Amino acid sequence: QVQLVESGGGLVQAGGSLRLSCAASGSIFRINTMGWYRQAPGKQRELVASITSGGSTNYADSVKGRFTISRDNAKNMVYLQMNSLKPEDTAVYYCNIFALTIARVGDFWGQGTQVTVSS
Known about the structure:
The chain is mainly beta. Helices cover 0% and strands 62% of the residues. The chain is built from no helices and 11 strands. The strands form 2 sheets. Strands 2, 4, 5, 6, 9, 10 and 11 form a 7-stranded mixed β-sheet that branches. Strands 1-3-8-7 form a 4-stranded antiparallel β-sheet, with no helix packed on it. The mean pLDDT is 97.
């Protein structure tokens, strides 16, 4: 069993900041990529940012320069620092890992945390 627990979402005014955290636990042998996705109402889930085990990062064009992803490999945690938030960043944010576990290798998802940015 693998669990991903997200925290840090909430309501913030435009221009504000939030920091999301995600803790992975369970029978995990190795985590390769960790990332954050988001899904706004009526839209498809999209990649926000990802980070490899070696620290290489990838960002959606819409968040470049505003969001920063980081990870703590020793703690199996991934973070998303979100600055200069805009109303269009409003969505449910999901933590994702691609990991080798006792049961399988593949994607695992958190339950999601709501981020709401008011104008």
